[in-house]
Amino acid sequence: MRVREYVTINEETAKMAKSLMSFDEYQMGSRTAEYRNDVDEVYDLAEEVIREKGDEYRERAWGLAVRYSRNIGKYYNEHSRIGCMCPSVMISGAGNFPVKKKEKQVKAWDKNHEFYNYCQSIRGKLKNMLYSKEIIRSDDERAVELLEEKIAELKEAQENMKEVNKYFRKNHTLDGCEILTEKQTAELREYMTKYSFDAAPYPGWMLQNNLANIKRCQQRVDELKKTKEKGNSEADYGSFKVIENADIMRIQIVFDGKPDRAIRDILKENGFRWAPSQGAWQRQLTSNGIYVLKKVVEELKEEA
Asked: Is the model more confident about 200 or about 74?
């Protein structure tokens, strides 16, 4: 199995938050232990998914576990930071209690709790994978789901990269950057040593490339949804039939019998492959596939 990745939990902030909420002494390292126990449950879950479901699930399951580790680490650190915004009335006393500060603190806790629920949705995806509660979807629906997961992952990465760069500009070091795992910190230090001309841990081109990937994935999602809404269509050209099969996201060309070599060559040269289970020559139903189809239809009509 892969090495488990963790972020750094700010123990000093956790200690201060505890002192503002309770007279009990804070045990140093306890917040980190709580975080790691939480995250290890999810890593264990990912490993169980891989054992039970096989290598097909390896990348996705482990990727979800790493995302959980990074995000729940943000939650724990933010919870401590919010705890430092205002003392409890037990600590400060009722006289001149900062009501406005407390209201802001409560709102911040509510917002952070929403983020906690988002983190638990990542854990939930792993549980669904393990216990086969994932909804059975047709090829295009499954593609949309996976692409939307990818978009969420890329967006998280984009925000994290910007936060790390901001932290580095302010502190001129990666030490203490809470959103980085130990592995990420080591990799970035190695990169910055090797490419010292880069003024930021994550150079501009990396952010631009990631943003381009987000846009590309979103365009693909929009295309898939549009195709699904359009539904199936069929056109009969006499010697062959063309089906735009939105259910399985394939362009299909069907002949009455086996086409001759010249026709088969045209199909193969344009990305069509024989699918015995469908009784058709097919390729993916995409905007590029539709563009190629127009050319193929004209060539097939000439051969007919």
From this structure: 74
Q: Per residue in 37-51, pLDDT tens?
A: 999 999 999 999 999
Q: 10 Å Cβ neighbour count for 135?
A: 8
Q: What percent of the chain has pLDDT over 70?
A: 95
Burial of 292 (0-12, 13-18, 19+ CB in 10 A): middle
Q: Where are the domains of the chain?
A: 1-134, 136-230, 231-303
Q: In what order do the strands lie in the sheet with 280-284?
A: 233-236, 240-245, 250-255, 280-284, 273-275
pLDDT band of residue 164 (cuts 50, 70, 90) is very high
Nearest to 4 by CA among 201, 188, 184: 184
**Alpha helices by DSSP H, 89-138:** 89-92, 99-130
C-alpha to C-alpha distance for 139 and 136, rounded to whole angstroms: 10
Q: Strands 240-245 and 233-236, how do they pair?
A: antiparallel
Identify which of 300, 140, 138, 284 has the alpha carbon closest to the alpha carbon of residue 235: 300
